[in-house]
Amino acid sequence: MISPNPFRPGAGHPPPYLAGRTSEIREFERLLSQPVILTNLVLTGLRGVGKTVLLEGALKPLARSKGWLWTGNELSETINISEEKLAQRLITDLSVITSQFEVDRQVIEGIGFHPQRAERVVTFDHALMESLYRDTPGLVSDKIKAVLEATWHVVKPSGVKGIVLAYDEAQNLADRADRDQYPLSLLLDVFQSIQKKGIPILLVLTGLPTLFPKLVEARTFAERMFKVMVLDKLGQSDRKDAIEKPIATQQCPVAFTPMAVNEIASRSGGYPYFIQYICYEMFEAYLGMSDGIPNPGVTVAHIARKLDGDFFSGRWNKVTDRQRELLRIIAALPGSDEEFTVQDIAEASKQADGKPFSPSHVSQMLGALMEGGLIFKNRHGKYAFAVPMLADFIRRQSKEIVP
Ligand SMILES: Nc1ncnc2c1ncn2[C@@H]1O[C@H](COP(=O)(O)OP(=O)(O)O)[C@@H](O)[C@H]1O
Ligand SMILES: [Mg+2]
Hints:
Low-confidence stretches: none
Mean pLDDT: 90
Bound molecules: adenosine-5'-diphosphate, magnesium ion
Largest sheet: 5 strands, parallel
CATH superfamily of the largest domain: P-loop containing nucleotide triphosphate hydrolases
Radius of gyration: 25 Å
CATH architecture of the largest domain: 3-Layer(aba) Sandwich
Order of helices and strands: HEHEHHHHEHEHHEHHHHHHHEEH
Number of strands: 7
Distance between the termini: 48 Å
Oligomer: single chain
């Protein structure tokens, strides 16, 4: 019998083996051991680097094993519509963990809430939380604080250490001055306030590298409120583990040769999504499952080409000719895999073929590329590619067009 392909290329799909990330996991363990929460977590990195699977596959089970409750969600762009919407999100997610908890009337009345319910046994479900929210006077922030405090009072007697509230794709949170809605600032204010009171609800925000600058822009105290973990490509030995361990543990009938392992490790650049993608395709080819006939002639190079078609070409085809010229200049800069400045680009464009770009033209075009999700501005105000290994792809393209 042919064993199923163990690799899992796909957003949020748990990998067969979660390679590396031990220092991140240890760091999170330290955050969980804070007697009073002073530091929350921001987990960022490019798309495909492994944020979601680290959160779900390692941090969540760790927190649970240490006696924490865990809840949260993935944030969509619609969360920015209003503060009310954020409040509803929090209530819905919290009630998932509290709806089994019985409410001690004395406790809840002690915090000034008198549920209008006839039943003797009342659980802190969505409806009850909702009514607490509505009955609390004041601003949206006052109402949310009341809900969070009550939540803690309800779960505390069971002996839990605290609650982790984890939001993925949190770069979608944004204040909207034009609509007079500030959900992001609201979230930060509320957590700062309840944590000051000693309530152990830890905030974990995961998202693209634009996330942390956004938090700091909303509230400067966000600088001190979060530990920022930046996930990056995997190192050499972790890459090998990610490639080899899934096959070893599944006792697969085929294995990669040491040469193939090295080749995958290097072609993937250590980016977890690319590792899963290349390994998956190699495996399919080895087993001949894609078209029914064994195809041992498929090489890593073939598959890297397929990856170009599947992953990069769509993005490349959306940019204009002039933007491509600019992107080629950027990709040729010595530091382009890390970060670059408007000045670097404008200078280099003088040496390149074609019309040079003025600094103001460069900034303007970078703005358009940021909106298209190809570039982002990092914490230090410099620019970087928002898509892993995009510079390599562009360099490959440039080589191909030269006869
Ligand atoms: N540490 C890792 N080891 C092996 N594979 C990983 C690792 N991290 C992520 N992956 C794989 O990479 C892909 C992208 O992971 P994901 O968590 O969705 O990234 P992100 O949330 O950062 O966009 C998935 O296919 C996942 O299985
Ligand atoms: Mg993700």
